[in-house]
Structure formats: structure tokens, C-alpha cells
Amino acid sequence: MNAVSAASSKPSTPSATAAPKSAGLEGIIAGQTAVGAVTQGQLLYRGYEIHDLAQNATFEEVAHVLLVGHKPSAAELGAFKAEIVAERALPELVIDTLRKTARLPNTVPMDTLRSAVSLLAHLDPDCQDVSPAANLRKSKRLLAKIATIIGHMQNVIDGRDLVKPDPSLDHAANLLWMMTGKKPTSEQARVLDVSLILYAEHDFNASTFTARTIAGTLSDLHGAVTGAIAALKGPLHGGANEMAMEMLKEIMKDVGEAGIGTAKVDQWMDKAFAEKRKLMGFGHRVYKNGDHRAPILHKLGRGIAEKDTGNPGGHPALAWFRLGEQVQKIMLDKKQIHPNVDFPCGLTYFTMGIPVPQYTPIFVASRITGWAAHVMEQHANNRLIRPIAEYVGRPQTKW
Ligand code: CMC
Q1: Which DSSP state fits 14?
Q2: N or C: which end of the chain has fewer CB within 10 A?
Q3: pTM (2 decimals)?
Q4: Does domain 36-236+360-380 bear CATH number 2.40.50.180?
């Protein structure tokens, strides 16, 4: 006899202490955190507001705030950056595996990254240790190595020699360097750096909650991050930055550059609404009046596009922004739905010539800091995460 049939001959009703029902746990406070705060009015990382960070901090400073817990002094920042740089190289087994897997059919970069992070666990001397000190050491290693995985993976996809990390470059600039083999301009490096700041932390989003659920069984950091990568991949979460750009490409193909600013875009959108399509890069479970991060990145990405003479996807970078802005206006006018950070991210990374399938891996290169901070917080004050379900299946039936 199984547990359900043993309990009652009727479908069990939730106990009096059950949490209120809510599809997708919408609006449910599922725990406490001191890492970040997401509200309609503000986004805070350990008390620091996101506009302030985007304006005044670097990604490495934000990573220190999240992982170590406080704003670093100049000496602490120097030591932290040196540790990250020293951890950038990948073990030979991981490089070998990247060479063998990155170009497999039916493989996308998020899969390759997920497998590589999982493989790193086998080679990490602290893998099974969930103490605070070991978790911090592993967090720094993952922060450093995930960027190198992305860079080397792109080199394999492009069929070029691996571009070694450059110790003189910071996290964002080095990531662009390793992916492309070209030194980024200071503006490109700063815009990527800000995008990493914006992506670093977002309280109990799906991937972070996944990481905390895994950590809550006292499983290890690499396992939690591997699960979080799988959760982030989906188009309703981090995968939306790639899908947003794919959608804009689809609109551009249908309306043409000459169609931007005309009723053709309205017609495309009306058809999408009639088909009840989810438009990627729009909407948010928490933010109903707009995502605090989106305008910050839009402004910076547009700034690059205004100077850019390149033709990403065969059209001037600015044309893509003009199309994106028209789509945003139609969404707001007709559906009252705002863009989330993934919409300007898609446009910005496209303008910078980054291959679309690497947009979500780059999100990982940043969010590893938020995930690791949450895993450490979970381990430091753990209680198994185990909600209950309301059974709505068949009543007890004789076998
Ligand atoms: N396109 C069209 N309609 C939408 C969209 C959208 N992107 N987002 C919400 N709606 C509509 C939805 O159809 C529903 O309408 P109705 O009440 O008539 O059925 C209403 O708005 C409420 O939407 P919901 O799906 O119940 O809201 P949710 O809180 O469950 O969904 C969301 C949040 C992010 C999953 C959803 O907005 C969505 O699917 N957006 C597209 C994917 C996306 O951009 N994800 C990135 C999320 S933020 C950053 C990140 O995690 O990376």
C-alpha cells in the first residue's frame, strides 16, 4: 500500500497549516534572505541599490559584496581580483570535454556549460565540503572558470585556437577577449560589466530557488549550480535574452528595415497577440510597473549602437534598437506590459557582436555570484525545503 492510499480512502485535503494555494508559488514568501531584495520600487544587493551599483561599482566589487558579504576595501578588492584571475585556467579534462561536446548536434551552449560545471565538481578538492570556507573557495573558482568555459566553448564552436585568459583584463573585458580573440573597447567592456552587475542577483527567482532547494538537502555547491543552470536555461527565465533577440530577428525579416516605424510592426504584433504568443523579454512575475534593470541597459546598449558602424544581422545596430523601441511601445500601449532586462540585453549583446546562443551563458557568468551567495546562506542556517502538495488525483482504488 502506498503512502497516499494508506492515509485515507479520500483524496487528502491540505492540512490547516498548509500555505495558501498559488499557481507557480506567486506571491508566496518562501523563506528569508539577506542577499538581495526585489520589490516594485527597488532592487537591492545587500542593501545597495541597483542604479547606484550600475553607476558606481564594478562587477568584481559587486561579486565581493555578494560572496564575501560587504563592500571591499581597495586592498580586499585587489586580493579578490587576484584570486579570481589565478583561478581562470581550466583543467585539461574540462578542455578536452569542451572540444568533444561543444559542437555535438542538438547541443546548445547552456548544455555544454551545465556539463562542464558538473565535471568541475569531480576535480575540485573541496567538492564534498559544504563548510563556509570551502563554499567561498569553490564560489570564487566557479566565478573565474565559468567565464573561461564560455570563452573556450565559443572558440571550439568557431573552430579557432583557444584564446587564453588575459590576466591584465577584468572579468567582463576578459570574457569578451576570450570569446572573440579581440580586445574590447573600454566602452564595450564597461557595458558588458554593467550587464553583469544587473544580472548578478534577484532573490528567489526560479534558478536561485532551485539552487537553494538542492543546497537545502546539504548537497554541494557544484550540484546546486548545475541545477540552477538547467533552471536558468528555460525561455521563461534566463533563456529569454536569446529568445528576445530571435523574436526581433523574426520581426525584422518579416517587415524589413524599411518597415521599422510603420504600421507593419503593429500588424506583426497584432497577429502575435491574436495567436496568444508570449513575447520574449516582456513581463515579469514580480515587477508589474517595469523592471528596474531594463532602462539602465537599454540606454547603455543604445549608446554603443549610436556609434557602431557594424551591421549585426545585416542591418545597422541602431535599426535594431529602433525596432526594439517600437515593439516596446506597442506592448505598453496595447498590453500594458513592460520589457524585462532580457529585452535590452538581447539588443545590447547583438550590437556588440556576441553570438546569440551565448547570451544565457553570459547571464550565468554573472548570476553564479547570486546563486553561490544563496547556497552559502542556505547552508549557514539550513532547513530542508520540502513543501506539500494538494492531492487532486484518483481516490483510493483497489489494485
Ligand atoms: N507576452 C505576452 N503576454 C504576456 C507576457 C508576454 N511576455 N507576459 C505576460 N503576459 C500576459 C499573459 O498572457 C497573461 O495574460 P492573460 O491574463 O490575458 O492570460 C498576463 O500577462 C499575466 O501573465 P502571466 O504569464 O500569468 O504572468 P507570470 O507572472 O506567470 O509570468 C513571465 C511572468 C516572465 C513568465 C511572463 O511574463 C513571460 O512568459 N514572459 C516572457 C518570458 C520572459 O521574458 N522571461 C524573462 C523573465 S525576467 C528575467 C529573467 O528571469 O531572465
Answers
A1: P
A2: C
A3: 0.94
A4: no
